[in-house]
């Protein structure tokens, strides 16, 4: 836990990023995973209760643990992210007032997709 001096700022960042991540679940184009990971990072410094809740969460917990332990993203998460970016790219291409605007957004998503696929995948969990 960090000093009490900035604890409130970490707390605020943790809850704000979690809120944005939850909105991203239903709003195309707004990513969920980066905001949840940012929330976990900030919560570890500003809200022990939120950090414990995130790590124990059925959906978010394994993703956060994989990232913290290995810097890893599951293949399923990579596929879902790239699929979402592709859908958003098509929508941008069809609706942008200028082609360069869509191309800029699509280019940024392509860079993120390449970076994402270069991340390692978590080690296989053996069932005992």
What is the helix/strand order?
Answer: HHHHHH
Instruction: Outline the biggest β-sheet.
Output: none
Structural class: mainly alpha
For the record, give the distance between the C-alpha atoms at the N and C termini, rounded to a whole number.
Answer: 34 Å
Helix content: over 70%
Oligomer: single chain
Low-pLDDT stretches are: none
Mean pLDDT: 88
Q: Could you tell me the radius of gyration in angstroms?
A: 17 Å
Number of helices: 6
In total, how many beta strands? 0
Could you characterize the architecture of this molecule?
This protein is mainly alpha-helical. It has helices spanning 4-26, 33-46, 48-56, 60-70, 75-95, 99-118. Helix content is 77%, strand content 0%. The relative contact order is 0.11.
Helices and strands, with pairings:
Blueprint: H1 4-26, H2 33-46, H3 48-56, H4 60-70, H5 75-95, H6 99-118
Characterize this entry briefly:
The protein has helices at 4-26, 33-46, 48-56, 60-70, 75-95, 99-118. With 128 residues, it is mainly α. α2 (33-46) packs across α3.
Question: Could you name the key traits of this structure?
Answer:
77% helix; transmembrane helix; Inner membrane protein; cell membrane; mainly alpha; 128 residues; cell inner membrane; DUF454; 0% strand; single chain
